[in-house]
Design a protein that fits this description.
This protein folds into two domains: 80 residues, Alpha-Beta Plaits; 75 residues. The protein contains six helices and three strands. A three-stranded antiparallel sheet has the order 1-3-2, covered by helices on one side. Helix 5 packs antiparallel against helix 6.
Length: 174
């Protein structure tokens, strides 16, 4: 009998009941990554998120493989479930010594410098925009807005640049 005929006649065996659809889909992916074809029977008519929200503990959520792959699949499922994952990992206490504190302070200093640069870049951008509104360049190839709107925009952009500069300057001193 050929390989295709043997596979068509082979039974599916349930090797594990998943706790929820998320675990089932993760296990299926893990089995596929390790060369075992598997299927997950959850809530077929519902998307994964709805299955997670509306699922109950008595729903059928089995993981099925072909009979000849059952032993290998059980080993892989046990390996997956026994390995440290998000649910079972015990959080380690962070190591805080002088070197780590110096490293964190350096990272914080770099982050402050980045935000200082971005703050001053915003000030320059707003000031340049205010100047462009004031001179209304010809290359825009449109008529300038009425003087009221034009100068109101210039004043508001200039005030925004001043407030942004004041804010950036104040936070850089801290």
């Amino acid at each position: 009998m050929g390989e295709l005929s043997r596979v068509n006649m082979e039974k599916l065996v349930e090797i594990h009941k998943a706790n929820d659809p998320w675990q089932g889909h993760l296990l299926i992916g893990y089995l596929h990554d390790n060369g075992v074809e598997a299927a997950f029977q959850g809530l077929p008519a519902m998307p994964l998120v709805a299955g997670e929200l509306l699922g109950t503990s008595d729903q059928v959520s089995g993981i099925y493989v072909l009979e000849h792959d059952a032993a290998r699949a059980r080993e892989l499922v046990n390996e997956f479930l026994s390995s440290e994952n998000i649910e079972t990992a015990s959080p380690e206490r962070p190591r805080l010594d002088k070197e780590r504190i110096a490293e964190l302070r350096g990272a914080l200093r770099e982050e402050r410098q980045t935000f200082e640069f971005l703050g001053w870049a915003a000030v320059v951008f707003l000031a340049a925009l205010a100047v462009l509104w004031a001179i209304w360049p010809v290359w825009l190839k449109t008529e300038p807005p009425s003087p009221f709107y034009r100068w109101t925009g210039v004043v508001l952009l200039a005030l925004a640049a001043v407030f942004a500069g004041n804010y950036a300057g104040r936070h850089n001193r801290q």
